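Hey,
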Amino acid sequence: MSEKDFPGWHGTTIIGVRKGGEVVVAGDGQVSLGQTVIKGTARKVRRLSPGGQDVVCGFAGSTADAFALLERLEAKLEATPGQLARAAVELAKDWRTDKYLQKLEAMLIVTDGRELLVITGAGDVLEPEHGIAAIGSGGNFALAAARALIDTDLPAEEIARKAMAIAADICVYTNGNLTVERIGG
């Protein structure tokens, strides 16, 4: 099948919500190929513990590419313990300049409970406004829903769950099978 004919993998909505000293990263479980759901229970949110420091990561894009990036991030975190932003910038620099890494197609949301960051292959390390980050096919739907809920009395986890439910109702590449990891609080 030529690249032109390949329908492309779609799926994944990942959201990170920071509120009240707690950060929650939630991701759905859907992976689609064209119009077909290939898997509904993929786990795209992971907890890393480099050097005993907890970091939660969510990824969108190619799974193999995301795991290659998570391994690199873990190595950067081991080299700079407790400095998530520095490790993220070092990963983004490598991702942008290394010929092998440039081909990787994924995005990451990472948090250590203090910082919430989005890392992209374009060399971006972004700290989102309003304490909410979202990536993936349904990311904009989840982001909009979480932004509407952030000023309510709901805790971070409930905001993330409600935002993901709304995204799953709107985006055909998002389902309600969630993996949720909490850090801080």
